[in-house]
Amino acid sequence: MAALRNPVVRALATCSLAASLGFAQQAAAPAPPASTPQQNPPAAPAPAVPPPAEANAPQAGGSDASTLTIRAFVPEVPLVFTVTDGKGRFVTGLKQSDFGLLDDGRKPDRIISFTQQANLPLRIGILLDTSNSIRSRFQFEQQAATEFLLQVLRPKQDAAFVLGFDVRQDLAQDYTNSVDKLSSAIEKLRPGGGTAFFDAVYTTCRDQMLTVRSTETIRKAIIIVSDGEDNYSRVYEQDAIKECQRAETIVYTISTNVSPSKDKGDEVLTRLSEATGGRAFFPTKIEDVARGFQAIEEELRSQYSLRYRPADLKQDGSFRTIYLTALDQRFHVRARKGYFSPRPPQ
Question: How many domains does the chain have?
Answer without folding.
Answer: 2
